[in-house]
Design a protein that fits this description.
With 211 residues, the protein is mainly alpha-helical. It is built from 11 helices and 3 strands, in the order H-H-H-H-H-E-H-H-E-E-H-H-H-H. 60% of the residues lie in helices and 4% in strands.
């Protein structure tokens, strides 16, 4: 048996175990639908389920990496992940998640007017997010929630988390290399990518990431 077949068999076995456990407890199966469960159950009663979930995720990542191939994986990591994060950040900043009804649909035109973005730009970002099952086109020209896009709509802290990572963490990422070149293995919070991005002064003992 080759490595791909071995990984595929592992994925199948873990998936069957998860589905069987959910069925035994009369719990809903994972789904992309808006009313799909936001997470798999945890706690003492579901330790084996969580073990299978983590093992399935690891095997799925491995098989994706192998079938993508090393060259294409490196390219996709650079070309896809950044636009994915950008799309989520735009949708969070303009709170598109809350603007789409949880139990229905809305046209691109009405959604654009509701959030204050041009329809053309909004359509681009939403359609990119749809490649990761964030929102769906319920019919041509109309947007509806998926299980993933419904989470920030139901739980605002998830939208705030996206905004925090984009607007507070995002500016610091491209400054990490200059910080390493300038200060190397420093232990000063201001001598960091975050410090450069937000103009922190290492000479000021009170100036830190917590100000």
């Amino acid at each position: 048996m080759g490595i791909l077949t071995d990984l595929a068999t592992q994925i199948l076995n873990h998936a069957r175990s998860i589905e069987d456990t959910l069925a035994t407890h009369s719990l809903p199966q994972p789904s992309f639908a808006a009313d799909g469960p936001p997470s798999l159950p945890g706690g003492p009663d579901f330790r084996e389920l969580q073990k299978n979930r983590l093992a399935l995720v690891d095997a799925a990542r491995d098989i994706e990496h192998l079938t993508t191939g090393p060259e294409a994986w490196i390219k996709s990591s650079v070309l896809v992940l950044t636009p994915d994060h950008l799309a989520l950040s735009v949708l969070a900043h303009w709170d598109v998640f809350s603007a789409v009804p949880l139990d229905g649909e809305i046209s691109y035109a009405d959604l654009a007017a509701k959030v204050g973005l041009s329809e053309e730009r909004l359509r681009r970002f939403i359609r990119h997010a749809m490649t990761s099952h964030v929102f769906t086109e319920s019919r041509p020209g109309y947007v509806a929630h998926t299980a993933t896009s419904a989470v920030p709509a139901r739980i605002p802290s998830f939208r705030w988390f996206i905004e925090h990572m984009a607007e507070d963490g995002g500016p610091a990422y491209p400054k990490v290399i200059p910080a390493l070149e300038e200060w190397g293995a420093t232990d000063q919070p201001a001598e960091s990518g975050f410090g450069i991005a937000f103009g922190l002064d290492a000479k000021d003992g009170k100036d830190s990431v917590f100000r």
